[in-house]
Amino acid sequence: MAGNTYGTLFKLMTFGESHGPAIGGILEGCPAGLTLNLEAIQGELERRKPGQSAIVTQRKEPDTVEFFSGIFDGKTTGTPIGFAIHNTNQKSKDYSHIKDSYRPSHADKTYDDKYGFRDYRGGGRSSARETASRVVAGAIAKQFLAPVQIRAYVSQVGSLILDKPYQELDLSKTESNPVRCPDPEMAGKMEAYIREVRKEGDTIGGVVSCVIRNVPKGLGEPVFDKLHAELGKAMLSINAVKGFEYGSGFAGVQMKGSEHNDSFSQDGTTKTNYSGGIQGGISNGEDIYFKVAFKPVATLIQSYETIDKEGNAVTVQGKGRHDPCVVPRAVPIVEAMAALVLADFRLRNEGAKL
């Protein structure tokens, strides 16, 4: 299986399956001498882990990261950073009912078609549990990038949309509620709706918005490796993501060029930021902001029609512990992938010395 590595210089390779002994990764290219706050890294995992509230999967995993290499006396050594997160609460029997059938809109059938074999327990390698390894690496990238600040939040659940510009939001309130929406009133509505959907045995999608501040100028390359192109690839590699837009995004098509152009001030900054902090594929020092759309979780806790390996029509009753809406737990994953992208481009610009 190819495609387990992301990055050019700041490079992450992940391993493991949802119901295997452990998941983990090897982070290569992190410069030597970076003092790491290991508690902050674990804190990022706490934001992503299952079982943290009533509106997410009730799988109970401590998600404690264990480092094996690349760190000595609290500092990076410049060698590959190896780490693992042990799986402790698998219930593989919850998936025995789909051993010979395919869940609609899952990777089950495409995986089987490609490899001729699949780990049906929670999706195996295609499970979103793999993203815990990305969060560890992203937490290290965040510390490498300081004072760059990456803040994501939930801006939509189903048809409930927080349409306030991010400049009008207090993003410090994002972690004050289980939905991770910085607007308390909208967060309450979103939480109530997710609970309602969950009672129905159904799921709902949503949007995670992300803002990156204090971005240095010059990150990104002007042709194939544009900064926004890499951010798009990184976000679209996250499970359940269906869309990515940055800056004015799709709404920008309704504007005329005279309205959309970001005019310069005399100090070189721009008076507006429809470009989303990226022009010509290169960061210009303004805030980078983007949105990531997540589909409704494909696993339903209700009966559904599907086919088995022989192509026969079958009815399956959904089982197991699943998120009714992924966006609350996706917030730290979006931040982590953004951090990995920026860290990689920083190394391309500056080399491997701090």
How would you sum up this structure, described in words?
The protein is globular and about 65 Å long. The chain contains seven helices and 16 strands. The longest helix has 24 residues, at 327-350. The protein is α+β, with helices and mostly antiparallel strands and 354 residues long. It has helices at 38-48, 108-115, 131-145, 184-199, 227-236, 257-260, 327-350, and strands spanning 5-6, 11-16, 22-28, 65-67, 71-72, 75-76, 81-86, 149-157, 160-161, 206-213, 241-246, 278-279, 282-283, 288-294, 303-307, 313-317. 42% of the residues are buried. The strands form five sheets. A five-stranded antiparallel beta sheet has the order 1-2-3-7-4, covered by helices on one side. Helix content is 25%, strand content 21%. α1 crosses α3 (131-145), α1 (38-48) packs antiparallel against α7 (327-350) and α3 packs across α7.
Strand order of the largest sheet: 1-2-3-7-4
Helix content: 10-25%
- What letter string, H or E per element, gives the SSE order? EEEHEEEEHHEEHEHEHEEEEEH
Please give the count of helices.
Answer: 7
State the secondary-structure class: alpha+beta
Outline the biggest β-sheet.
5 strands, antiparallel
